[in-house]
Amino acid sequence: MAKAMAAALCFVTPVLSSFLFVGCAARPFYPLPSRFPGEIRQPLQTNRPYNIAHRGSNGEFPEETLPAYKRAIEEGADFIETDILSSKDGALICFHDVTLDEITDVGKYKKFANRKRTYEVQGVNITGFFTVDFTLKELQSLRVKQRFPYRDQQYNGKFSIITFEDFIAVALDAPRVVGIYPEIKNPVFINQHVKWPDGKIFEDKFVEILKKYGYQGSYLSKNWMNQPVFIQSFAPTSIIHISNLTDLPKILLIDDTTIPTQDTNQSYWEIISDSYFNYIKKYVVGIGPWKDTVVPAVNNYILTPTDLVTRAHAHNLQVHPYTFRNEYNFVHFNFHQDPYEEFDYWINTIGVDGLFTDFTGSLHHFKKWTSNLPPKDDDADEQKASDLLHKIYLMINSYRSP
Known about the structure:
Blueprint: H1 2-10, H2 12-22, E1 50-53, H3 66-74, E2 79-86, E3 92-94, E4 117-121, E5 124-128, H4 136-139, H5 164-172, E6 179-184, H6 187-193, H7 202-212, H8 222-226, E7 231-233, H9 236-243, E8 250-254, H10 268-271, H11 274-280, E9 286-289, H12 291-294, E10 297-298, E11 301-302, H13 308-314, E12 318-319, H14 339-350, E13 354-357, H15 360-370, H16 377-397
Parallel strand pairs: 1-2, 1-13, 2-6, 7-8, 8-9, 9-12
Antiparallel strand pairs: 2-3, 4-5, 10-11
Helix pairs in contact: 1-16, 3-5
């Protein structure tokens, strides 16, 4: 500690000198760690279940917005997750629903009133304002709101829809290695309504963007560890198509077993069979099941777990269930309305390899408090030294001319 503090204090003199030259600057005068090529950032932790920020920290901010993703990183997310859809003009956006009605203000614009359509989506007729009928510019003129009425509403109308590239930039600009976890959302529907040049399809454009930003390499390879990513989809044909374009790791999502797949019309009962696992493991490194598929629940009480995780692990497949939420109506009564008890059960009893959560900070705290790894003195010293430098900066900055 003494060495770290001494080093920090020694740094004050040159900092004060440099202040004479940059006193009018608006940004901090000590380097921002993500601004320089070749910087050494804290690596992704792979020795514990992954903390996957489901649509960002959407327990606090409207889902899939820049603040939601930035907050998730601050809270300790290993991966930030997003859904990818397309605009009318082929721009890939971060948005969950194929319609805009529920979480945007699209309905208040008279100029868009004639855009309402009825389309078939996964065998069901849906009426609304669809992303595929709006250009990117139009989509970004809309404002989003919190999906759930029992969550904080103060940010409604303050944020816009972002692009896939905006999302990637948030992860790459993080002060430590943060992975991304994008989902190819409703690929059958998107490919029916959006056409790209040269015969390319949704999946092709998706992989092009990943490659543009340097995402490459198989699971745990050096390249992957530098820029981690899992590609997820409910559509087996999308997973297979993408496997021909990149060796990045893929996750097959699993819905309620009563729902058929959107592309192959298979029952999810078939999807979770040993014979199918034996087939799909050639293309994926894991599965992402709805958590009630792993542990059934009735009247908000969990029942006896299935053998899904055990069988997936026998096929060397990871299991990343979704979605964990802190609110009492989502935490089963067996856990006494305590999300930490739920995390403990899923990680230490069921043995999953990652969890999708709306409350990244809660899962981070649980993992931190239950970790068997003692804190490193060096890390603590470095943090204290960094905090001291920041305080010195704030003190000096208060004397700058407006």
